[in-house]
Design goal:
345 residues
Length: 345
């Protein structure tokens, strides 16, 4: 209860519903936001395929990926990985994902088989991008304008502990104020090493998945916004026709590589349900500031969708169809959470 950054999503959206209703009334359509990103299914409401969206990214910026359909023979998928020279370790995650659920680093062919047998859903499998750093950059651009805005940079600090030469890994985790909140997840990831004693000052990275739900600390990096960076993202936006609003999660070694557009890999590109995740830096934000920041972004989303609809004849999705997709997403998330509960049992 004291860590508002971990509060459930409805705590950030129910208080903002009156503003959402106001924008819908102003647009005269309850699903006006569905015209924001024509390149994505429903503009990226969470029901889109991650594999399809990553394919929109210029090749130099995207990791090698394949899609394992739930009905596909696992051996065929392994053969395809070998054909495309995608080697272990890998990242496996649901093709229709949400808040890092079931995202896992896979180290061996045996682990991959076990993962695919356990989760009978469409899975995107990506090469593991072994860059040192990860961040999320929120960008939007009105279709009528040449230049866009970077409104949020979130630097990600992975859960890490340091050995003292006497404590087991489990004891080190429980002594860390952030890591102990993820004890169930970390116990599963490191089950074979929990009772080992790391050397003094040995750095142990507990997770390599940059999701808040997996304990990664989100740090406000808005001081890194620059004209050079905006120009790079303007060019990127124009190379992804039909994407005007959302957050890109990427890995890099040095931030100047992102600024110059020289060397980084995009892990995911998100649409209208993306959040400006710098709001979860509790050192620089508060719960009420976070609510306000969400409203500010919704105003930009409204402006983009209205321009797309009125000037470029992008249709709004039927409200009933959009609602049906939300129920589909809800059912899908419940299925994934059932998988998680089974694992914990």
């Amino acid at each position: 209860m004291l860590h508002w950054e971990y509060w459930p999503a409805y705590m950030f959206y129910i208080p903002n519903l009156p503003y959402a209703f106001f924008l819908a009334a102003k647009a005269k359509h309850s699903a006006f936001f569905s015209a924001t990103n024509p390149a994505f299914k429903s503009s990226g409401n969470g029901t889109e395929s991650k594999y399809d969206t990553i394919q929109l990214v210029p090749k130099k910026y995207r990791p090698e990926s394949i899609l394992h359909k739930k009905q596909t023979n696992i051996q065929q998928t392994i053969h395809k990985l070998k054909e495309q020279n995608i080697n272990f370790p890998l990242i496996a995650k649901p093709d229709m994902g949400f808040r890092g659920l079931l995202v896992k680093k896979i180290n061996t062919e045996k682990e991959l088989k076990t993962y695919l047998e356990k989760y009978t859903i469409d899975i995107i499998i990506q090469e593991f991008v072994d860059y040192n750093n990860e961040c999320g950059i929120f960008y939007f651009r009105n279709p009528d304008e040449e230049n866009g805005v970077i409104s949020s940079i979130t630097l990600k600090k992975f859960l890490t502990v340091f050995g003292d030469g006497t404590s087991t890994m489990k004891k080190l985790i429980l002594a860390d104020k952030r890591a102990k909140l993820q004890i169930d997840l970390l116990s599963e990831i490191h089950q074979e090493k929990l009772f080992e004693i790391p050397k003094k000052d040995e750095e142990i990275k507990l997770s390599v998945i940059g999701n808040h739900s997996k304990g990664t600390q989100f740090i406000n990096g808005n001081h890194l916004i620059s004209e050079t960076l905006i120009n790079t993202f303007d060019a990127l936006s124009k190379n992804i026709p039909g994407w005007f609003y959302g957050r890109i999660d990427l890995k890099y070694n040095d931030f100047s590589d992102i600024e110059n557009g020289s060397d980084f890999k995009i892990l995911e590109i998100n649409g209208i349900i993306a959040e400006p995740t710098h709001i979860y830096d509790t050192q620089k934000s508060s719960y009420f500031k976070a609510l306000k920041e969400i409203r500010v972004h919704w105003k930009s989303l409204y402006d983009i969708s209205i321009t797309n609809h009125k000037k470029y004849n992008i249709p709004y999705k039927s409200s009933l169809e959009f609602i049906a997709e939300m129920f589909e997403l809800r059912s899908y998330i419940k299925k994934i959470k059932r998988y998680l509960n089974l694992k914990l049992l």
